[in-house]
Amino acid sequence: MRGLKSLRGALAMAADYTAPVADLRFCLEHLCNLEELATRPGFEEATPDMIAAVLEEAGRFAGEVLGPLNWDGDRQGAQLIDGKVQLADGFAEAYAQFVDNGWPALDGPTDFGGQGMPKAVGTAVNEMWHSANMAFALGPMLTQGAIDAVESHADEALRATYLEKMVSGEWSGTMNLTEPQAGSDLSAVRSKAVPEGDHYRISGQKIFITWGEHEAAENIVHLVLARLPDAPEGTRGISLFLVPKYLVNEDGSRGELNDLRAVSLEHKLGIHASPTCVMSFGDEGGAVGYLVGEENKGLACMFTMMNAARLGVGLQGVSIGERAYQAAASYAKERVQGGAPGHQGRVAIIEHADVRRMLLTMRALVEAGRALSLVAQAAFDRVATAADEDERKAQQARVDLLTPIVKAWATENGQEVASLGVQVHGGMGYIEETGAAQHLRDARITTIYEGTTGIQALDLVGRKTLRDGGVAMRALVAEMHGLIAELEADGKVADLAEPYSRAVAQAEAGLAWLLEHGAEDPEVPASVAVPYLMLQGTVCGAWVMTRAALAASRELASGGDDEAFLHAKLVTARFYLDHVAPRATAFLATVEAGSRGIGDLASEAF
Hints:
Distance between the termini: 47 Å
Number of strands: 12
């Protein structure tokens, strides 16, 4: 049996990861317009040559250091022993190397020791970390979100005390939102904050805290939602507090342990090596915390972190899909089974048409998700460096619109890709040692945490479409329309004009239907939200894949160096438009069905 010669061979396959440096670089240069970004204040060092070197080195670290820990980390998991988290073997050492190499500071603010690279570049690098080892990468991802929240909303003293060591990675960060009784309804948060001099005493319990306790970093900076004694009910009465694991002395050194602890670790379906904690604050009188932002406006401050995390989780869908795709493609080239038209004797299963269909579906969904994630982050970079208020508002509207799409659509696709990876492996995909099952288990959480697919869809329909009368979505659709003439004028990709224009028409029709019917029936927005999001996500995928095809065609015409890579871009884009984009038609039909049937069955009949 050539496909799985031995258990040792299977384990080697599970550990292997090669960073898709060429595609990441292509997206940054041609879809994010890296050359233009590098002309903006603060981004002058983000030249194509510099970024190429960064991507190569990050790919090496991901493949050689983080990747080999992934499968063993899943089997061993994190453990809570005497109140302290024991990470899986090699994780603490890898984190120390990660910090020593300066990776946490790559796109961090220069005022606090960061390198100030564009977020789009940081996102490209973060994809590698998550593909190589999602359980490891969750820690730095949450720290980055905490940095954003502290930098944007904390006072000067807190920023001076905490940000430099958070940016360097010496100290990590977490997000403490929900509680056992609250779930996604943060209006039900009960944790308390009592004023005491220049600080507050925090008490309460928080659940699902990613990397809430560990010894890899010297300190952990918890951002905690809690209520003041006189706070109003609901989300309007929530404040945000910075609560360090260890208090900080006046000279900046680490002080005594604060009144907080991890009381248990969640036993999860996947990401076993990531310590997901139940945190208890104030068991012995109250943990010392510091107000971030204004009293009773903590949720708005936390949304800075949550939105960064939502884009990061969308990227996780891409990342785990890339890892699953690589494993499936490698296996399909090795596994010999049956015959295929045009071949004599038994063949590797990659020669079977249905296996190729699955692999191309995986590849197309991953490349589309990657491109859309990077384009969203490039818009974020342009918000930060906008030349005037009009540009800032336009780019912010684009970020706001794409955030729920990237988070939900890319993670739903990540699950599909990971599931197809198991299918390509056949029976061996159901065996843990190949690693295919781990990708599927790890991917499953991505559509849930940081806001479920349904929550993202409601955000897209309500805040991002109906609230502004569809202005932001119309602007994106108009931009999509602009590519049709470019396709028709390019002989290599002119055949894409028809399927692409058909997909854009579906997005436009879905928007028009929602705007017409969304206010008539209060049940409609919630009933159609998810198919509407999946419709727009599918068409956004067509948009970025079409842009990639146009760029590849132009590179080929000008004598681009890597002809095989550019040809593959054209093939993958064509496959997406022929085999993935038609899903938009079905999603539109579901949207236009409105709320029919959804409320017809009595609750007790379920």
